[in-house]
Amino acid sequence: MKKMIIAIDGHSSTGKSTFAKAIAIAMDYTYLDSGALYRAVTLYALEQGLTDKNGRPHVKKLVNSLKDIFVTFRRNPLTGRNETFLNEKNVEQRIRNLDVSQSVSPVSGIPQVREFVDIQLRKWGKQKGIVMDGRDIGTAVFPEAEVKIFMTAPAEIRARRRYDEMKAKGEEASFEEVLENVRKRDQMDSHRATHPLVMAPDAVLLDNGNMSVEEQMEWFKKLLEEKWGIRLK
Ligand code: DC
């Protein structure tokens, strides 16, 4: 079977990574999380004092520091999953915390940051046989991707999922705070000047507000067979 690039874009907290990981396992592809790069750059900015007291980036200082930021994914042999390393430090958990989530949208709106991330993503994409999730994978990073899926769900459902995840990890936040963060990110992702979140004309829409992961996989298998004639077990 010819190896493809599968682009999964959509709103925040729609379960893109869960879905993309499940597809990667089913197809024996590599899963790559583009949001992790934006999160790692944001963590660097927060740790190096390149943000103001509200967590907004000092654009010029951050752009000048991009040359000092080295992000890689390494496979954890125990879990078999890729984990994010920032300048040789494992930051896989740290980049999911609320302070990073609250500052990542303005950081990802900086055109030079997007260019920095895109160069890295395209390098990884050369190998094909990848499933990558993000906001602009099917529109800007890999417009040539063979399979493009755009995911959405109502904001309250997405905030509930995020809130439950955070609570399970013992993180402090109220549901209202999480919902506000989801809404704010939707607004910023869809309205930034460079590569805003839009559905590619050749993407297939998936509203998973009322779907389990198993139901989404069934949907995907059907889609793959109908549109690309590929049959998965
Ligand atoms: O998917 P995520 O929540 O981990 O993404 C983190 C942030 O990065 C999110 O606010 C939007 C941004 N992002 C982006 O602008 N483009 C991508 N391809 C992936 C993520």
Give the ordered list of helices and strands: EHEHHEEEHHEHEHHEH
Oligomer: single chain
Number of domains as seen in the coordinates: 1
Instruction: Determine the CATH topology.
Output: Rossmann fold
Which ligands does the model contain, each kind named once? 2'-deoxycytidine-5'-monophosphate
Please state the second-level CATH architecture. Answer: 3-Layer(aba) Sandwich
Structural class: alpha/beta
* Radius of gyration, whole Å: 17 Å
Main beta sheet strand tally, sense and closure: 5 strands, parallel
Number of helices: 9
The average pLDDT value, as a whole number, equals 94
Shape: globular
Low-confidence stretches: none
Number of strands: 8
Terminal CA distance: 14 Å
Strand order of the largest sheet: 2-6-1-7-8
Q: Helicity level, as a percent range?
A: 40-55%
Regarding CATH, which class? Alpha Beta
What fraction of residues sit in β-strands? 15-25%
Task: Give a quick rundown of the structure.
This protein is of the alpha/beta class. It has nine helices and eight strands. 48% of the residues lie in helices and 16% in strands.
